[in-house]
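Researcher: Next entry in the queue.
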Amino acid sequence: MLPALSAALVGVLVAGAATFVASGQTVAHLGQISLAVQDPGSPDPGTTVPEDTAATTTTEPTTEAGTSEEKSPDAPPPEQPSETEPATSADVTSPPATEPAEPPPPTTPGPQVTEEEQVVTLVNDVRTKRGCEPVRVVPELAAAAQGHSSDMADRDYFDHTTPEGVGFAERIVAAGYPNPGAENIARGQQSATQVMNSWMESDGHRANILNCQLTTIGVGLDKDGWYWTQNFGY
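Model: Structure for this entry, 234 residues:
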């Protein structure tokens, strides 16, 4: 069950909506998560792992042949007792010396999965359940998202628009991606699961994540204040 949202500031920005209008986009704030949407039909606002035992052989003890008291002239001479060689133990053959087994090489840990990658995985999990195609990571969107998270952390603000008035769509196009779609931001959540729970508890943010028309994504995180940015594109 997703935890309830803390009291917070959620900003929804939709191109062409009707509350606070600035450059064809509407903004409303409610807390520690915020979203923005770009209408694909509206004018482009900007750019962006045997023990061997010795066998001893022995011989049966030999006995002297019996002699009769009376001899027959034709009888063969009595057999002389045979001399037997003392029993000797069999030679012990030592197994050939073997080289000591080399220890297995140390295992190399796999690459660590970042929080940003975890967010993408969680996004695609819920999109698959909804019947949407997974979004693919685009470097330009990731650069735009990381830049915005770091900018908010460096300058201590929380908004889709920079202090200079640059909106999310302009930042995405400026980063080299021509088709901005939407942006979700958040602050304070200290894991991918926490931030996704927060976004999925909000109708607007969930709508961005589950918008089957959006096909690309970039995620940025600055841990100085835990500022998160999701940028989506068409």
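Model: The longest strand covers residues 180-187.
Researcher: Noted, moving on.
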